[in-house]
Amino acid sequence: MDYDVKGNLHRVLDTLPQGVRLVAISKYHPNEYIEAAYAEGQRIFGESHEQELRQKHSTLPQDIEWHFIGHLQTNKVKYIAPYVSMIEAVDSLKLLREIDRQAGRCGRVIKVLLELHIAEEATKYGLTLDDCRELLANGEWREMQHVQICGLMMMASFVDNQEQIRREMQTARNFFDEVKADYFADDNAFCERSWGMSDDYPIALETGSTMVRIGTTIFGPRVY
Ligand SMILES: *Cc1c(COP(=O)(O)O)cnc(C)c1O
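^ thats the input. predicted complex w/ pyridoxal-5'-phosphate below
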């Protein structure tokens, strides 16, 4: 292994305040990198492609908690529903319905996050704040027995401007407080704020992230 996964992992973990969890983003990295982090006690890993996740899930330890962090097509939900621990990037009611349906078929309850689109880049997926308000106001989610909405996820713009990143993350933080008060005040499970990646997680920690998703800093550059 040409990368010091163990050292990098501990350097990241040492900077996380109590109560903030690390999702080690292992997409495009081989099993041996994941095993090196696993040997240090890391259990939550994130992947963004269904086939790659399927391959890794079937060959790596079964107590790994897999988070699906990428854009998920509805026709792929059935493949990950039997084992995925959390689906982080729910960006439509249609996808939420399909997760509920497939989780039901497996007799499971799948944890999900609603993905916000706050970044200025046009290519990013996610719900605008108004889309998200509408999805929650619609109320259909309350009838779903097999999904548990645990919080919000977002990606800040991929820019150097630290103030822009901070502004976007603070917007997500304020929006979390709004929907928590409006819809989840009595629901302790709605508590996750998933933001912060290798380049911007220090700002994420300052804006109340509870879950950072870090790949490159731990595993090195991805080889696509
Ligand atoms: C790849 C990815 C990450 C990790 O990015 P790094 O810059 O390698 O830390 C985090 N979140 C999502 C949604 C990703 O796709």
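The chain has a mean pLDDT of 96.
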